[in-house]
Amino acid sequence: MAAVSYDVVREILVRLKDVTTLFRCAMVCKGWCSLLVSDDSFLRRCLPVPEKPCGSALFAGFVTKLRWPVGQPPAPCFVPAPRSVLGRHGLRVLSSFFPSARHAGFFDHAVPLTSRHGLLLVCLDSDPSGVLLAVCDPLAGMLHELPRLEHYWDFENTSRVGGYALLTDSDCSSFNGDGDGLQQRTRFFKVLIVTVEKSRVHYTLHAFSSADQSGWNTRSGVVKDEEDKNVSTMLRQHNAVVCDGAARWLLWGMAGVHTLDVSCKTGHVSLIRMTGVQLHYFRDQLHDHPYLSIDGEGKLMVLGLRRDSRELEIWTSHKDGRSFQASMLKLKDQNLPRKVDVYTCLGEKHGMILIKDNNKHVYVADLKTGVMHEVKDWPRSNGLSRRKTVPWEIDWPGFFVSQLASAV
């Protein structure tokens, strides 16, 4: 019998929509495994992401520190979003994803920091001698403990926390190390930690790459704006947004609104002024602190939520990534007739924004439709803050690849 070409096999496999069946096909032989793993676009054809309801195929929920069960010390917990594919498990502590953790209290003092493509960056411990970080893959049950970083970290003093970013192989596409390509694609990550002084943009940048076993690389310098001027500003959002090949942190001050950009490939640091974003929204008491994110087309955007209503101001960047245009979105939820006095934005991921109110309720709002859904599986705990709450999305094709990597 004549051999069937891989082109024909590809057209057959692309019609399979079940993850389990695809996994079994990938285990038939090395050729089929390579066919499935080597092409991200092919996987996304096999595993399309439905737009409804509420982008739940990607947005899984959020990780935050809670006293749960009640009376226990606060620990990182995963809270599923409405209609999340992981919702059937309900609220669960983060340690339950990692049965092989070194000991039962491994995550007792951990604080979630940021997430990217299904990975989660957490601070395991912090003291004057430095900070201990880890990159976790909750679905795969794997974690990578990083070398201790000599960096003063105080979560009770927001000016000393600095900023952090988590990058993956798709962000740093210039990574072409030797060895097994499949393992590189599924295990590579980079962590960036940055601090910025207010008087002038003097930065200190710490970088760790899973491909480099030498530990943290540290450098510092002074960065000026496009007009070669020193700028007095402050870092206002600790978790970075990854957009157009750079990790970007939001800064603002008397000189206006800026982003501090660090190139994912080269590490080059630059300061970019954001024009069109109205500074008075950042200062008045009617609006929550603005939140930097990206929209569904990969464009930079800034979210400004009114504290006393469900109005959301959205500034979206043009192609140049520097000039922004404003629009207004009215959030709606017909199922919540109760009066709410104050709204607060906790974060955004993949078009879904997390919001809490002064009655300790939490909602997920769709930035396309404006529809809000209350998070039911929620203990209405005190202390929920933007700084310790991380929205978490799941890259299902990426997870599929990681499982193949662990099986072959």
Automatic annotation (TrEMBL):
Pfam families: F-box (PF00646). Residues 6-41 form the F-box domain. InterPro entries: F-box-like_dom_sf, F-box_dom. It comes from the Eukaryota. This is F-box domain-containing protein. It comes from Lolium multiflorum (Italian ryegrass).
